[in-house]
Design a protein that fits this description.
With 281 residues, this protein is mainly β. Helix content is 7%, strand content 62%. The protein has a twelve-stranded antiparallel barrel with strand order 1-2-3-4-5-6-7-8-9-10-11-12.
Length: 281
């Protein structure tokens, strides 16, 4: 969970970054023929760390917009904002990303992305450390690809980011693979695995994540209900102090409004193709 990551990475003089999807308020009249499609979603989560035994609650507002320029050329923009409550403390991450990619009709997709993240943690102030800025930011980029089968979408990505936080910098290397399986055009199961390596001043952090979710879109209206579970495992190393491994469990659920698509499967194949990745859900 987020508290676990913040505490471990701060001990390693490295702070993780959030990610997400920017909410947009678009009219439902947009159609696939216009080349514009996307979604807006709201969600909540609860999580608990194993070692620190700390609870977390959070809400997020996210969204994505995809423009099909024709001849397989697509541009997607996404971003979001979140409010997280960990014990007696709050922090607010937000982010924005752009993806330029090539997608022939229902065959495959390949392209690249750039992303900006920023989060105010309040950590140093909470610890009584004055004169140090309570923020972390990252600029990242990478490559991504997807393959479309009859009822399954496989995808993968790899990238690099440079983190800038109050008392130093860090390199962030990440990659992942995932699958979306359609039981019907409006019922989908998701499975994703991610790996992050953060190389700090005098310490490193390895984070492995497995996330699964179920999505159901109503036949009568473009509303999708989704829920899922995420497991995170952390392995910090430092030349300054001893740090132990830990893990966390997070449960999430939300509601998504889509435009410019006729079903979950149609949205997957003709709408926004990517979910922006980050260390934080």
């Amino acid at each position: 969970m987020r508290f676990q990551k913040v505490v471990l990475l701060a001990s390693a003089i490295v702070l993780p970054l959030p990610g997400g999807l920017l909410a947009a308020d678009l009219q439902s009249g947009a159609s696939a023929s216009s080349g514009i499609s996307g979604y807006v979603e709201g969600s909540g989560l609860i999580g608990r760390s194993k070692k620190f035994d700390v609870d977390e609650k959070a809400w997020s507002l996210r969204g994505a917009l995809n423009y099909d320029a024709g001849n397989g050329i697509n541009l997607q923009v996404d971003g979001g904002v979140e409010r997280s409550h960990i014990e007696d403390h709050y922090y607010t991450p937000y982010s924005a990303a752009a993806h330029l990619y090539y997608r022939p009709a229902n065959a495959y997709a390949i392209g690249g992305f750039v992303k900006y993240d920023r989060v105010a943690t309040g950590m140093f102030g909470n610890l009584g450390i004055v004169g140090v800025g309570d923020y972390t930011k990252e600029v990242s980029g990478g490559l991504e690809a997807a393959a479309y089968m009859d009822n399954t979408t496989f995808y993968g990505l790899a990238g690099y980011g440079r983190q800038d936080y109050a008392i130093g910098d860090a390199d962030h290397y990440f990659g992942g693979i995932g699958a979306r399986y359609f039981l019907t055009d409006n019922l989908r199961l998701d499975l994703e695995g991610m790996y992050h390596h953060i190389d700090g001043i005098a310490s490193d952090m390895d984070i492995g994540t497995i996330k699964t979710a179920v999505n159901y879109r109503m036949d009568s209206m473009p509303l999708t209900v989704f829920a899922g579970y995420r497991f995170d495992n952390y392995h910090p190393t430092s030349s300054l102090t001893d740090l132990s491994d830990d893990h966390s469990h997070t449960f999430f659920a939300g509601l998504r409004y889509s435009f410019g698509s006729q079903s979950l499967k149609d949205e997957d194949r003709n709408g926004p193709a990517w979910s922006s990745t980050s260390i934080l859900p």
